[in-house]
Design brief:
The protein has helices at about 15-20, 65-75, and strands at about 30-35, 40-45. By secondary structure, it is α+β, with helices and mostly antiparallel strands. The model has no long low-confidence stretch (mean pLDDT about 85).
Length: about 80
């Protein structure tokens, strides 16, 4: 477990191991997400190249016509 201490000004230093895991560098921004009784923070600034491969390529290409038909069919279900 990694621990940080809050300063008298309400600031913390993000420990080096956490910065490394999240690829955070000086000047990067983080977003705080508050739920019931926990707080998560996620990096806001990321290089677009880090998203490469995040969404897998479909097995079969889909045409614009097929997309439009699916959108229309699902839209009419609501």
């Amino acid at each position: 477990m990694t621990i940080a201490t809050i300063s008298s000004r309400g600031q913390i230093t993000i420990p080096a191991d956490v910065r490394a895991i999240l690829s955070l560098k000086r000047g990067d921004k983080v977003n705080f997400i508050i739920t019931d009784n926990e707080v998560k923070f996620l990096p806001v600034t990321k290089d677009i190249n880090t998203l490469k491969g995040f969404i897998k390529k479909p097995l079969k290409p889909v045409s614009i016509e097929e997309m439009n038909k699916t959108i229309q069919a699902r839209g009419s279900q609501e």
